[in-house]
Structure formats: structure tokens, C-alpha cells
Amino acid sequence: MNFYLGIDFGTSGARAVVVDEQGCIQAEGRFPFEKSEVSELANSWQKALFSLLEGIPQELRREIRAIAINGTSSTVLLCDAAGKPVDTPLLYNDARGAVVIEELRSIAPANHTVLSATSSLTKLMWMSQLPSFAQAKYFLHQADWLAFLLHGQLGITDYHNALKLGYDVEELKYPKWLENLKIKIHLPRVVTPGTPIAELRAEIADQFEFRRDSMVCAGTTDSIAAFLASGAKLPGEAVTSLGSTLVLKLLSDTRVEDSRYGIYSHRFGDLWLTGGASNTGGAVLQQFFTKAELESLSCEIDSSKVSELDYYPLLKAGERFPINDSNLLPRLEPRPTSNVEFLHGLLESIARIEARGYELLQELGAERLTQVYTAGGGAVNPTWTAIRERILQVPMVQSVNMEAAYGTALLAMRGVG
Ligand code: ADP
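Above: inputs. Below: predicted complex with adenosine-5'-diphosphate.
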């Protein structure tokens, strides 16, 4: 038998999923991150990776044909010539690079995706001013470094991770303007996600009793891995993530970019994965209700009835997509005495923002929306799904799977054909 291993390094933990050739799950493992010292971050990732490998049932390990890893987008680190981190990695949400944005603005084209405090390129510029930079040879993303631990090749990434480093995913090359940065570092060679890179290092294969010819493939980012897991694959198919925030992703034949709304597109084979992220979402629901209340109150909502309550649920002022207004105030009034009615108004208002988001993507040139898969904590709420179906007027379809690790296992399988 041939099995395929996907490993997801997410925000709160790492997960592993082993699938067979039919995409059926054969084994799963979890490694929750503990609060570790920042200086121990890279070590703790390595520990998580090896502990996940160890946790795979022994009889499956010998049958694993390919492995891929996804990391959180824009989590990056600098390594020396041997691949040893020269300083602590910078996490996806680390915004200390804000101080170099003005300098970057003079180099990168106006409104480019890299012009954000948390982009990989901003982080590289910020790190290049630290004393530890003198020992740095390679700049890597989290997924690249973890894959290096398995295959031993330094300086390789995929074009999903490389987007926020400024890599031109249309031309498939680093743009000319990047040369003006004058940072002395090896930028990673960029390959298609899933590309076979090299066999598992012999020591690792022997230590964990994997087969020696297990192929380690190029990875991706966590959110693209979750998209892959859903099963969406045709233009017009979308995945809405109802997590703490509301994130839309729509597959399209055409690339859509609009920095005013934070809209950008990832290359997705011959298609484009276009999307935007709103500040509304589950975090606002959580402000008013517990998980148990969300479940019980939702059961009492008549999803076929239109709620007259017109909210714009936000935790604080400011929105980017689908309305670009940094001063937009949360609108959560009037609050009815009935909690069922209040929640109905909230769920329906978020669904309207979702619908407006897809409308905006289509106005800017994306494919016509045909069906929507759902991921994230809100995906389990059938009342919300019914409300969304009424408002979006397209079928809501069940995701094949919602785990990024599952999507990454599929990437490994496709990578080796
Ligand atoms: P994150 O984006 O932080 O990874 P998750 O995908 O885990 O978030 O989703 C968590 C969110 O899901 C919470 O903010 C919560 O409000 C929401 N949520 C959980 N259960 C329900 C439910 N039954 N109905 C609607 N929303 C829910």
C-alpha cells in the first residue's frame, strides 16, 4: 500500500494526517503547542514534528510514499549555512516590521501585497538590521525549514509561501525591484507546491522506521491547505472560513488584486485563488454567547424567516473587506430582549457581509460564484448554513474535510503523481 502524510503547523498546534490512495484517513495525530519561550520556538517545532512522526502507527510508517508540510503564512526564520536558526523565528502575526514599511514603500510597487507590517518581506527587512543577521545565510518560511529537517535541502520554498515575500507568481520569478533591497541573503528557490524535493534523510527514515524512499514534497500555507481539504476545485467554487474572522476564498480563471480591500490572489495550478478577509466573524459572537449558547439558541431560530436587524458585527472600529473604512464603527444596536432574535440578527448580518464579499470579488473580475464550502468553528451550525444559503443563493456543500493537514496529505499524494 502507498500512504501519504500531511503535516500542518497551525496557530495553536501541529497536526498529522495519513491518507491512503483514495484519500481515506488512516491515522491522525495532534501536538498542541505549549507556551514556550520564544528562544525555544524552533526547537519546539522540531519536537512537534518528530513527536508527530513517532505517533504514526508503526505499520503505516513503512508505507508512507510522500510527505508534505504546511506552515502559517509569513512565519519566517533565518538560518546559517547548516540550516541552524541564527535567531528566533518571527511568527505570522509579528508586526515589529512596521518600522521598515516606509523604506520598503520606496522599493516595492505601490499597493503591493508585501507592503504590510506582517509580510515575509517586511520581516526579512526588519531582521536584516539585527546583529544576528551577520551569521544568516538562508531566509526560510516555517514550512521550508521543517521540510529541510526531513529532506536536508536548504533554500527551497513553494509559490504559496513565497507570495508575501514578493515573488511574482504570474511570471514565476523574483521581480527586478527586489534586487534594490540589497540584503545579502539566499532567497529560497521557488517551486510549485507539492513538487517532490528529495527523499527523506536516511537517518530520519531509520530513526522513525519510515521507508527509505519516502519523498518529501514542497509544502504550502495553512489556509491554502484547508482550501485543498475542502474538495473545492472548479472555478466559481468557494470556501468561507467562519472562524474568529470571516475569510472568503473563491477559485477563479482570472487573477483579482485590489489592495484597497486587501484582496489578492494565490496561484492555484492553472487557476487563481482569490480572496479577502473581513474583521467580522465568530469572535464577535463569542463576545455575547458561549459555545453552548450558540448551539442551543441557534436551534430556536427559524432560518427561513428574514431578520430585520441590520448589524455590522465588529470587535472594534475598522474594516477592510468588503468595506474599506478604517473608521467603520461596530453596529450592534438595537439589541432585542430576546437572545434568539439577537443571535438571528447577528448570524444574518454576517451572512450579508459574506454575500457582499463574494459580490465584490465578482465585480472585480472573479468567476461567478457557484457553490460554497464552509470551514472554521461556525461550519458546524446548520441554522447558519441555512440562513447563508438563503442570502447567498447558491448551494452550501459539505467539505470533504476541514483539516489543513488533510489538504497537505493530498498535496503530497498529487506531488508524487
Ligand atoms: P479561529 O479562526 O480562531 O481558528 P475557529 O475556526 O476555531 O477559529 O472558530 C472559532 C469561532 O467559531 C468562535 O469565534 C466561535 O464564535 C465560532 N463558533 C463556534 N461554535 C459555533 C456555533 N455553533 N455557531 C456559530 N459559531 C460558532
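The chain has a mean pLDDT of 96.
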